[in-house]
């Protein structure tokens, strides 16, 4: 009887979980942090991983959730990620990773949802932070060779290495909080045709830089992609394919970092390497 009363008291005192988009992203970032230091050897976090996540979430937000609440959120998030993963993986719905939209007709959507009713929630919206969830639930190795489905800004890191992720963004919603979490902005990639304002006030067009399509130019272009960690598998793959001139020409003529990453991952997934 005593244990039942204590159990009931704990439930009454337990803070009801409220997952705002910011709290949700914080939860994901903290999961990535634990993965980066080796606290997810299988499909779930280790005991130390959960304890670290609980402590970090509490220290940043001031909200003290129980482990079961975070575990429930993990399970629900994973379920939605699987639904989204199936959506963008099927050729039926024609997901375009560049336009970030589906090309399916209303009739095709209707048919798909009849067979997969849980997918209806994504008919008019994307899964939040899908690129990060690919790492959390898909695994670092699987993520590295899978077709890129979201071409927004992100940080590509070798999460198999035992080092914490960078911490750069402040969660401003929490007064007096000085803890920063990870977020990256996609860098602008110049196209050599930037407008320059002269002293007379007249805007003139600078002459385009003529590319020689050298390996050196390609490496500089690779290094300019801040989302791509130097030394990770995709970076090294890029160095390999630069041995072939046709690949160098394609890479340098792609102006957006996100497009360059998507192209590299597509080649990597098809095991396309230069022929000797």
From TrEMBL:
Pfam families per UniProt: Myb_DNA-bind_3 (PF12776)
Domain Myb/SANT-like: 18-112
Superkingdom of source: Eukaryota
InterPro entries membership: LIMYB (IPR045026), Myb/SANT-like_dom (IPR024752)
Full protein name: Myb/SANT-like domain-containing protein
């Amino acid at each position: 009887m005593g244990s039942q009363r204590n159990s009931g008291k704990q439930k009454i005192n337990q803070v009801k979980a409220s997952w705002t988009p910011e709290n949700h992203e914080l939860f994901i970032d903290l999961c990535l942090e634990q993965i980066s230091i080796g606290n997810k050897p299988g499909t779930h976090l280790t005991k130390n991983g959960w304890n670290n996540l609980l402590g970090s979430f509490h220290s940043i937000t001031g909200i003290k959730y129980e482990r079961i609440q975070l575990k429930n959120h993990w399970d629900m998030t994973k379920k939605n990620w699987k639904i989204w993963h199936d959506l963008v993986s099927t050729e039926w719905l024609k997901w375009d990773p560049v336009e970030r939209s589906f090309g399916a007709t209303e009739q095709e959507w209707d048919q798909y949802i009849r067979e997969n009713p849980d997918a209806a929630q994504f008919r008019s919206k994307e899964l939040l932070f899908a690129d990060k969830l690919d790492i959390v639930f898909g695994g670092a190795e699987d993520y590295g060779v899978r077709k890129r489905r979201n071409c927004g800004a992100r940080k590509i890191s070798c999460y198999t290495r035992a080092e914490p992720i960078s911490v750069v963004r402040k969660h401003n919603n929490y007064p007096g909080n000085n803890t920063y979490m990870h977020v990256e902005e996609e860098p602008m990639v110049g196209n050599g045709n930037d407008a320059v304002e002269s002293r007379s006030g007249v805007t003139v067009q600078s002459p385009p830089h003529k590319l020689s399509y050298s390996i050196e130019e390609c490496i500089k272009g690779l290094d300019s992609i801040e989302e791509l960690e130097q030394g990770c598998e995709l970076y090294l793959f890029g160095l390999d394919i630069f041995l072939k001139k046709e690949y160098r020409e394609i890479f340098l003529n792609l102006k957006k970092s996100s497009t360059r990453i998507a192209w590299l991952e597509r080649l990597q997934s098809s095991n396309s390497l230069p022929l000797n």
